Amino acid sequence: MNQPEPERQAGSGHVSLRRPPFGNTASQHGPFAIRTLIVVGMVATVVLVCLFLWAVIDVLLLTFAGILFAIFLRSLSQGVYRYTPLREGWALVVVVLGLVALLGVGAWLLAPQVAEQGDRLIERLPRAVQQIKAQVEQYQWSRRLFAKVPEPEEMLPENADVLTGAIGVFSTTLGALANVVIILFVGLFLAIEPKLYTDGCLRLVPIGKRARAREVLYAAGGALQWWLVGKVVAMLVVGVLTALGLWLLEVELALTLGLIAALLTFIPNLGPVLALMPAVLLALMHSPTQALYVILLYLAIQTVESYVLTPLVQRRTVSLSPALTITAQVALGVLLGGLGLVLATPLTILLLVLIQMLYIEDTLGDSVKVPGQ
User: Fold this and answer.
1) 371/303 Cα distance (integer angstroms)
2) C or N terminus of the chain, fewer CB within 10 Å?
3) Contacts with 80 (C-beta within 8 Å, 6 or more apart), sequence order
4) pTM
5) What is the CA radius of gyration of the chain?
6) CB contact at 8 A, 3 and 14
């Protein structure tokens, strides 16, 4: 308790008691209350921003995929611009028209065969699984294992019907096509006038930091560019070698399996494993020896891709360890779904560039090799 402060009046021997004014106590607590409100406001703002970003995470992922497509188009147009007398804008037009023509010719030549083989693949994969299951069930331990696994029909809801399944497949397909269209248009507009968007992003940075922000932005773009070019080359090589090798091994549906292997090569580590499964299942329907040859073929192709193509083409990008890549893929796949799994590697590259340049170099003062340059 605050004791009254004695005060002696001038010219007299009397002592009066004076209590401290009430306003002084309030003024002592005023700054603390203001600081508390500021902290609470900052925390609330951060929480609201995080919730907003989580609500629009699909849009952000599609935008990032569009940025990757724009980087791919700019990489090709820069090559045309460097080795031809065309201006940069016309080089981009030539690249876009060339890609459209290439896709058109490829669809005209290969689409009927791929569509037919795709239908046969969908038809034969369940039969291959049933055949392998029948062979494995010859052993007692496997019969006990399969007895605990429910049949596919039992895993479906009781009210599930053909119409519901058809509507689900249609909506999924329509959503995937819409996402592809969004990625293509976003990438095309970004590739046409990239300076407009980069300058707009840099205006959000303080003037004194814009030069460094531009350097970091270009370094991240260079790292993603080299990774993307290397991945596209790897996809082409893996697809051709897989289709040719399966054709030489007399495995059915070699063209479709090669296309699947090429597309799944975009996903490091996990993609080749997913591409191997249908090829091995179809080969097991013929003989275990053919399945062994298929496994050896995929291992040889992945060895060439991992130790020859990737180090050669991506020597100027960020080096990712397999453990870090798999961890990022699993984490983003669980949190964000299929699109997060597909974009896990380029997102990790972008994050590592930001950490190296903004934290290790700028904050810690340690020198780093700027990727992509």
Assistant:
1) 25
2) N
3) 86, 91, 94, 95
4) 0.76
5) 31
6) no
